[in-house]
Amino acid sequence: MIRTEGLCKVFLGNGKAGKEVRAVDGLNLEVQQGEVFGFLGPNGAGKTTTVRMLTCLIGPSAGRAWVNDLEVGKADLAIQAQVGILTESPGLYDRLSARYNLEFFAAMYGVKDVKGQVEKYLRLLDLWDRRDSEAGTFSKGMKQKLAIARALLHEPPVVFLDEPTAALDPEAAKTVRDFIETLRGQGRTIFLCTHNLDEAERLCERIGVFRQRLIAVDTPDALRRQLFGRQTVVHLAAPAATGEIESLATSVRALPFVQRVELLAPADAQGGGRLVIALDDPALRNPAIVQALVNQGAQIQFVNEMKHSLEDVYLSLMNNGAESTPGGAQ
Amino acid sequence: MRQFRALVGREWADMLRNRLVFYVVIFVPVLMVALPIIMLFVSGRVPINPQDLQEMERTLSSPIFAGMNTVEAMQAVMASNMMVLFLMMPLMVPVTIAAYSIVGEKVTHSLEPLLATPITTTRLLLAKGLAAAVPGIGMTWLCYGVFLIAARFLSASERVFAVFVDPMWLVAMFILAPLLTVAAVMVGIIVSSRVSDPRAAEQLGSLIILPLMVLFIGMVAGFIQFNSGTFVFAAIGAALGDVVLTYLGVKLFQRETILTRWK
Ligand SMILES: Nc1ncnc2c1ncn2[C@@H]1O[C@H](COP(=O)(O)OP(=O)(O)OP(=O)(O)O)[C@@H](O)[C@H]1O
Ligand SMILES: [Mg+2]
Fold first, then answer.
1. Do residues A271 and A302 touch, judged by C-beta distance below 8 A?
2. Any bridge partners for residue B93, and if so which?
3. In chain A, which residues have their Cβ closer than 8 Å to the Cβ of B1?
4. Is B134 on the interface with A (CB under 8 A)?
């Protein structure tokens, strides 16, 4: 469980320049136990800074934070014993073997069965065969997997993953993502920083869109609904007469429960056009809409729900929240 | 305790695989023990120029050389001048190791996951310091030991050998050397917390220990008379230096600074 209250981090400028950078500004957040929480934000949003504060690597400038009911700044060692962190860069000891790297960290975390845990994670992440190779000889993907293993050795109930798939090729990224998926359902709280939207959508139960401040938090579906409402799309066959689709749109617009109707070009050559209808409760209202359209002589090909991509949601949130520019002097 | 052992062990495992560090830790001491042994060997066999002897008169007036013939005196003086080199080891070896152990971790970004483990900064600093200090002192003593074994065979007489185990050298090796090591470790740590390239750290560190080296070169050149008093005095100076440097080192080694100022 993670909770923050007005968490802030201000970096003082280096020396004379004296420019302050307000990296995190009044973050209020609550992540439930066992939840996979996506922390989404552009470069320089302050994601890494937030993770560093929550893992007691740097101190907050203001505000408070708790990890598993332990307060940051008061019980740092206890917090650090309970969290695992995948740092932005893997930071392995390149001259030492994969196994040595893990055994060292197992000892640092006070793991009882060092050999057993190290073997377990090396096997889980498919690195067992390369256990005695120097970590420096690993590919980026393998390094990342080794760093993930390092974060999990002590079976922490809370795991912070800072951009686990950034800089990986699609295949390596998929392996890592699949592995993270297996971590869900083990009851661990996972705090996942990313700017990969598909990843956030696939892995996270809730998403916080963040840029210096928290812009929105909710499930991906709820965020979509919040921004775009629910929309039904009706695909119509090519009309017999011009203007027919416009008149169909007008008649739908006249229905009392319809909020908005938009006309879109057809999805393919066989279609005539699409009506995008915004409304509250599609399950209840769609039959009436279809009925009305058919009565008007519409040739309906498909009816489905409009799915906005998370990208649309994200971009829309970013544009709305654009007044807060990170890194700007404040 | 387990963390401590793991930290020191990892430090050494890494050191053994780092060619540059290994070179300083092994090669330099070998050179430094070879020089006095060669001196001992040569000065026992080469005929002495009377002019040189005259120059050394002041040195020879020291009571530890009393009652020696010229060959004995020559051997004793030349070799013990070179023995001063042993005191450079507790400076050079730890500075190098400490510089690489902190800046090296900054460069590879391995410091962040390390600092994320449940360990206090003081302990981490202590472990890193110990990992740098032990090879420094160890090599110094090892060299002294090897030199004494060689001296057993090469000394012209019992009297000459006695010079090498004079209380003055015992003070130098067992009191001054460890104190110098602490100073060197702290210099390495202070430099590392401010610099982001291991070579720069090493060079800067060497620069800081330069005054100490000048002091020793002065001794070798005969400007400074050395006796038990000199070394006791030096030890007191080193101890004071240790206190100041340790205070500075602990103050400067702050996780937030070293973590966020590494670019
Ligand atoms: N040590 C520091 N000193 C000064 N400013 C800093 C420091 N660390 C981070 N910042 C600034 O704080 C802001 C947030 O940085 P942070 O690394 O947390 O972003 P991020 O969300 O992790 O970005 P990315 O996606 O690029 O990793 C940036 O403007 C950055 O320049
Ligand atoms: Mg980041």
1. no
2. none
3. none
4. no
Q: Label residue B216 by pLDDT band (50, 70, 90).
A: low
Tokens of A302: 């498909």
pLDDT tens readout for residues B240-261: 988 998 888 888 887 787 777 6
Backbone angles phi, psi at A250, to 5 degrees: -60, -40
User: What's the CA gap between A127 and A144, in Å, rounded?
Assistant: 11
Instruction: Supply the residue whose CA is at minimum distance from atom 2 of ligand 1.
Output: B260
Q: Tell me how long chain A is.
A: 330
Band of pLDDT at residue A98, cut at 50, 70 and 90: very high
Residue with tokens 């800074």: A49
Candidates A80, A290, A104, A91; CA nearest to B6 is A104
Chain-chain contact of B256 with A108 (C-beta, under 8 angstroms)? no
Distance of CA B85 to the CA centre of its chain: 8
Joined together, the tokens standing for residue A5 give 């209250």
A interface test, pick of B3, B11, B115 with most A CB neighbours within 10 Å: B115
Residue A213 near residue A27, CB atoms below 8 Å = yes
Q: How far is CA B196 from CA A206, B53, B101, B239, in A?
A: 39, 51, 12, 29
Q: Which tokens belong to A275?
A: 């009506």
CA of A52 to the centre of ligand 2 (A): 10
DSSP A97: B
ipTM for this prediction? 0.83
The predicted-structure confidence for A12-23, as pLDDT tens digits, reads as follows: 866 555 678 899
Contact yes or no for B17 and A89 at CB 8 A: no
Under the phi-then-psi rule, with left for phi > 0, alpha for psi from -120 to 50, and beta for the rest, what region is B119? Answer: beta
Query: From CA A230, how far away is CA A283, in angstroms rounded?
Result: 11
Strand partners, A161: A86, A192
Q: Look up the pTM and report it.
A: 0.83
C-alpha B263/C-alpha B107 separation (Å) is 9
CB pairs under 8 A between A and B: 83
- Higher pLDDT residue, B245 or B77? B245
The yes-or-no verdict on residue A240 having pLDDT over 80 is no
If we measure between CA atoms, which residue out of B96, B99, B87, B98 comes closest to residue B213? B87
Quick check: B68 pLDDT over 80? Answer: no
- Model pLDDT for residues B113-171, shown as the tens digit of each residue: 999 999 988 889 889 999 999 999 999 999 999 989 988 888 878 888 888 888 888 88
Q: Which two tokens stand for residue B15?
A: 């050191």
Minimal C-alpha gap between A62 and chain B (Å): 15
E strand segments, A118-188: 158-162
Q: Determine how many CB atoms are found less than 10 A away from the CB of residue A202.
A: 16
Q: Which residue intervals of chain B are DSSP H helices? A: 2-17, 19-22, 28-43, 50-55, 57-60, 70-83, 89-107, 111-115, 121-154, 158-164, 167-171, 177-192, 198-208, 210-220, 228-252, 255-260
